[in-house]
TrEMBL record:
Pfam families: Exo_endo_phos
Protein name: Endonuclease
Signal peptide: 1-23
Keywords assigned: Endonuclease, Hydrolase, Nuclease, Signal
Molecular function, one GO term: endonuclease activity
Composition skew (Gly residues), residue ranges: 31-41
UniProt KW Signal keyword: yes
Stretches the record annotates as Disordered: 24-47, 324-359
Lineage, top ranks: Bacteria, Bacillati, Actinomycetota, Actinomycetes, Propionibacteriales
Organism this protein belongs to: Nocardioides silvaticus
Length: 415
């Protein structure tokens, strides 16, 4: 059955418009308590904490997230809120938050602004959400299984429009009128796009037919450039959630797309020539100007050493001359890797940098969630919220089946 893509062309929804309000600086007091966990909240008046969290606030049916957030009693949502309260970011991207503008305020009112388990309430005056390609029918047989329809033939994998979307919350104003979205940018319009090949046919790069390539969007969810006003300065928060490089065949259609979704930001911050092909959903061209401040955030679904992503996919960002490699780490991740064994024992990457607790058959725990600032910003702290098992707060991260999410929150402090 075809769903009508009613959300596809809807304008981005800015939920707060208080552009003149000045956000209060983050409190400098320690909170949370308990030794050895998380950040200990040492950031003061001159630093801003940026974070990313794949919070698994996706649901299996349209409307379910709104239903779950309409009352304050959903335990998983409470755990997500407590995690955010413990880390206390100033600006946070939440991946896997079904697209539902109502849900944005419900999560604030019923969860974030309610102290969870002794943590202090957190108040984000600003938020941003916009439609996602997930679950929007493409009208084509994108997975080449002989039928058209279902989550795998959508513009991004999803069972209904907006499943696995994303939202940004901020204590600082989001300049929504200057936000750029790249939901509709076509994959074929990226020069040298890594369009997948059908190995069963002689032609190159022909998994997708010309008719499919004419409509196929690069972003599996969306890519947003959100200008955040911090004092007199603007920091562009560049957020996305590239598709997992798995759930495909020898053609590697998801691995190649993951690579190019990551490449999009590498080009966007790579100077005028490299970004000249880019156009946003309003038709404006180009990327960031040289010298503009930015922080790239999101679950990039790619580890620098292990897992199924195309070689070098995440190195496009980690080795980028304009981007700082911040190396957030935790004490809990190496402990989990050692305790869980399996695929983790074969990994080349240092488990201290892991951000996701994946199946220990394959791929094992990986570093996939990143907060990567422009080199010109000064990073003074970074971490992954993954407490040791002995820490009382490890109840928030837990073990499979997870009480909160299979991903961990990652943060950096920028001066
Ligand atoms: Ca199909
Ligand atoms: Ca072929
Ligand atoms: Ca695991």
């Amino acid at each position: 059955m075809r769903r009508t893509p009613v959300l596809a062309l809807a304008a981005a929804v800015a939920l707060t418009g208080a552009l003149t309000a000045t956000a209060a600086p983050a409190p400098a007091d320690p909170k949370g308590g308990g030794p050895g966990h998380g950040p200990g909240h040492g950031h003061g008046h001159d630093t801003v904490r940026f974070a990313t969290f794949n919070a698994s606030l996706n649901r299996n049916a349209e409307g379910q997230l709104v239903a779950d957030l309409s009352t304050p009693g959903n335990q998983q949502a409470r755990n997500v809120a407590e995690t955010i309260q413990r880390v206390d970011p100033d600006v946070v991207l939440i991946n896997e938050f079904d697209y539902a503008p109502e849900a944005v305020d419900l999560f604030r009112e019923n969860y974030l602004e309610v102290g969870q388990n002794g943590a202090r309430p957190i108040r984000f005056r600003h938020a941003y959400i916009a439609p996602s390609n997930t679950g929007v029918p493409s009208g084509f047989d994108l997975n080449n299984d002989g039928t058209v329809g279902g989550g795998d033939d959508a513009f991004g994998f999803g069972l209904f429009p907006g499943q696995y979307g994303m939202v940004v919350y901020s204590k600082f104003p989001i300049l929504a009128s200057r936000a750029r979205t790249f939901q509709h940018f076509l994959w074929k319009d990226m020069p040298g796009a890594m369009l997948p090949d059908d190995p069963a046919t002689p032609g190159p790069a022909d998994w997708y037919s010309p008719a499919e390539q004419a409509v196929l969007r690069l972003s599996s969810k969306s890519h947003w450039d959100l200008p955040i006003k911090v004092g007199r300065k603007v920091v562009h928060f560049l957020v996305s959630h590239p598709t997992p490089p798995t759930f495909d065949g020898a053609e590697d259609r998801n691995g190649t797309r993951n690579h190019d979704e990551i490449r999009f930001w590498a080009d966007y911050v790579g100077g005028k020539r490299r970004s000249s092909y880019i156009y946003d959903d309003q038709g404006r061209r180009g990327g960031l100007g040289r010298g503009e401040r930015f922080v790239i955030a999101g679950d990039q679904n790619a580890d620098p050493y292990d897992g199924d992503s195309v070689d070098d996919a995440i190195l496009q960002l980690l080795d980028h001359p304009a981007i700082e490699e911040t190396r957030p780490r935790s004490k809990g991740a190496p402990e989990a890797s050692a305790a869980q064994g399996g695929a983790n024992t074969t990994h080349a990457g240092d488990p201290a940098y892991d951000t996701a607790d994946f199946s220990d058959t394959a791929p094992g725990n990986l570093r996939v969630d990143y907060v990567l600032p422009a080199r010109r910003l000064r990073t003074v702290g970074a971490g992954v919220f993954w407490p040791r098992a002995a820490d009382p707060l490890s109840r928030l991260t837990g073990t499979f089946p997870f009480p909160t999410s299979d991903h961990r929150m990652v943060w950096i402090d920028v001066r």
